[in-house]
Specification:
The chain is α/β, with parallel strands linked by helices. The protein has a six-stranded mixed beta sheet, sandwiched between helices. Strands 4-6-8-9 form a four-stranded mixed beta sheet. The chain has helices spanning 29-44, 75-94, 111-118, 145-153, 155-164, 170-176, 188-200, 204-219, 221-235, 239-249; strands at 5-10, 13-18, 50-55, 60-62, 100-104, 107-109, 121-125, 129-131, 167-169, 181-183. The chain is globular. It contains ten helices and ten strands. The chain binds coenzyme A. Coenzyme A binds next to strand 6.
Length: 259
């Protein structure tokens, strides 16, 4: 059913692989449409608990938006392209109620870096390279890069990367907090799946509340504290909170049901 991406389920995680390795997995309209569908699938299916996004081949995660679609765009079409991608993929990932992790296996440039940043957190293989080179094309990021990069690595570092178009290696990205872990290439997917397995063992409604509150902290910090109070309280009415606290007191492992 998908032409531009591959999907498979591993232990309740939907592994989404962008599959245009001859074009370094560049994001064209079809990739954006299929990624959007795959995220809908994750959110709709009860037996899927998380997703990993990665790129096919040893070289690239995603080397950017597909530049071959750019020359014919004017102002209105450029804005429409960015708005559609943000709505269908980037914001949808960020606002997802199940964790979505980027496994960055090579170049993550432009829209590729933005895709990784829209995910809830990032792992990188040792050969990964990150950057926002749009300035070299006379452009700027359009899929949230100017915003999310500032949140993730801070204003000064983000401004330098955005203005120079320079690339960061995996270790530098780790040091700056852009990625959480750096692994050997063959360990990247197993490590991502291992972390997600741990998350799958937690109460789904608590996981969902945390994902939402982290976004509120990022974008509306003042409202975030009030939202946290409300969500904290609401979770006391769930079966999983009763089970989790009782199981602790009874010195046994909690059995969560998502209720
Ligand atoms: N859009 C469209 N095609 C792209 C692409 C992109 N963002 N990035 C790479 N490709 C294509 C190349 O055109 C090439 O296609 P071809 O074999 O038909 O000529 C193929 O992918 C391989 O890329 P190539 O440039 O030959 O590989 P390289 O190892 O020499 O360089 C990069 C790798 C990532 C440094 C280089 O491809 C690059 O700079 N890409 C663009 C990055 C960018 O500006 N992204 C932001 C876009 S907004």
């Amino acid at each position: 059913m998908y032409q531009q991406i591959l999907t498979e389920v591993q232990q309740g995680t939907l592994v989404i692989t962008i599959n245009r390795p001859d074009k370094l997995n560049a994001l064209n309209k079809e990739v954006i449409a299929e990624l959007s569908q795959a995220i809908d699938e994750l959110l709709a299916k009860n037996d899927l608990h998380s997703a990993v996004i990665t790129g096919a081949g040893p070289k690239a995660f995603v080397a950017g938006a597909d530049i071959s679609e750019f020359p014919q765009l004017d102002a209105a079409a450029g804005a429409a392209l960015a708005a559609l991608g943000q709505e269908k993929v980037f914001s949808k990932i960020e606002n997802a109620t199940k964790p979505i992790v980027a496994a960055v296996n090579g170049f993550a440039l432009g829209g590729g870096c933005e895709l990784a940043m829209a995910c809830h957190f990032r792992l990188a293989s040792a050969n990964a390279k990150f950057g926002q080179p749009e300035v070299n094309l006379g452009l700027i990021p359009g899929y949230g890069g100017t915003q999310r990069l500032v949140h993730l690595i801070g204003k000064g570092r983000a401004t330098e990367l955005l203005l120079t178009g320079n690339m960061l290696g995996a270790e530098e990205a780790l040091r700056m907090g852009l990625v959480n872990h750096v692994t050997a290439p063959e360990e990247l997917l197993p490590k991502a799946l291992e972390i997600l397995q741990l998350i799958h063992s937690k109460a789904p409604l608590a996981v969902q509340a945390i994902l939402g509150l982290v976004n509120t902290a990022t974008y509306q910090p003042a409202e975030g504290l009030a939202a946290e109070v409300a969500a904290f309280g609401a979770l006391f009415d769930t079966a999983d909170a009763k089970e989790g606290t009782t199981a602790f007191l009874e010195k046994r492992k909690a059995q969560f049901t998502g209720k």
